Amino acid sequence: MNEQMQAETRVGIEALGLYVPRYYVSLNELAAVRGVDPNKFAVGIGQELMAVPAPDEDVVTLGANAALEALEQVDRSQIDTLIFATESGVDQSKAAAIYTHHLLDLPRRCKSFEVKQACCGSTAALQMALAMVAQKPTRKVLIIAADVARYGLGTAGEPTQGAGALAMVVSSQPRIMAFDSEWGSYTEDVMDFWRPNYLDEAVVDGKYSIKVYLKALAESWAQYAEESGFDHADHSRFCYHLPFTRMAEKAHRQLAKLNGLEVSDDTQIEEGLRYNRIIGNSYTASLYIGLTSLLEGTTEDLTGHRVGMFSYGSGCMAAYFSGVVLPGYRTHLRPNRRVEQFETRVPLTVEAYEAFYQHELPRDGSRYLTPQHETGHFRLSGVQDHKRLYERASRSAKAAPAHAAQDVALAG
Description:
The protein is an alpha+beta fold.
C-alpha cells in the first residue's frame, strides 16, 4: 500500500462493549454508616452509586464480559491483536489478555498482551491499535480496558471506588467513531497516585493529583491544538478521564479558561457523566465508559460532530485527542441493554460490601473454590496450585455452590 492510500485510511471504533459488576452500594448508605454528610458524596464528588465486584469477579472476567458484547457484531476470527489495559493485573508475568484470549476463543494467531500506565494505559493501547491498523488496514484490534478501583475502608478515596470494563474493536471499517490523527501528550515523573506491589490498595495524594491532572490537560491540549489547528469551537462534545464525576466539571472549566472563554458550557459534557455517577471510578475504562455514556445518552444526532477527549494516568502520562462521530453510529450501540444492565443490579448493604471487599484468595496457592454470585458470562471459580481458574458461568445457576459450576478452564 502506497503512502497516499495509507493517508486515506480511516481508522476508528467498529464496535463497543461495556460491562459493570452486578452489585452496587448506595453512597447515601455509605455516608450514613461512615458518619458523613451525604452531600459530600452526591454533591462534592458527584457520585451516587458504587459498582462492587463480587468475590468471583476480577479484571479478566470483567474484560471478557465487555469483549463478548463488542464481538457480537464482529467476526472474531478477524481479530489480529488483543491489547488488555489495566492497573489491576492478576499476575506479575502472565498478561490478563492471555486468560481473556482463552475465554473468548480467539484465533491462535491473535497476538495478546497487557499494557500499564495507570488510567492512561487504555489510551496507549488505542494509539498502538490505530498505528497497527493504519499500517495494515485488514487488521482488527480488540482493546479491553478493565479495572477495580480500590482504596482503604473509611478513607477519603473510598467513595470514589468502582469497577467496570470497556471493550472496543478498532479497525479500518469504523461504524461509531473515526479518530483524528493529531494528538497531544504530556509526561512527568510525579507521585500523585500509586500502588506498590506489597499493597492491595492504592496510595493517593488527592489534592496534588487534581493539580497535576489540570496541568497535564493544559500541556496536552496545547500540543494537540498546535498540531491539529482545531480550537475549542471545533468540538461539539468533550469527554474526560473520570476519577470522580466532578473532576470533569473542573477540567471543562479549566479548558474553557485556557481558550479565553469566560464560562464553560456544561451541556457539552453532561451526558458523558451519567454512567460514571452510578458506577464510580473504573481507572483505564473510565474515559471510554464516558464516551459510551455520551453516545448512548445524547438525544441529539451527533453524526459528524467532533468529540474532544482527555486521558490522564497518574504518575503521570496524559493525552489529548479527538474523533468524529460517524453516520449510522446509533444502530451499533445498545442503550436499551445498558438500561437493563443498570436496572437489574443488586444493591448491597454496607456490611455486605465490606465482606466482598475483605474477601481474599489464599496467598499460599492452595486449592480454593470461590463462592458463586451473580455475574456475567464468566467468573473466577477459584485457585489451585497457584493457578487461577476461570469458567463460563451458568446463568441458570446464579448463587449456586461453587462446585456446581461447569466447564472449568484451567489457565496457567
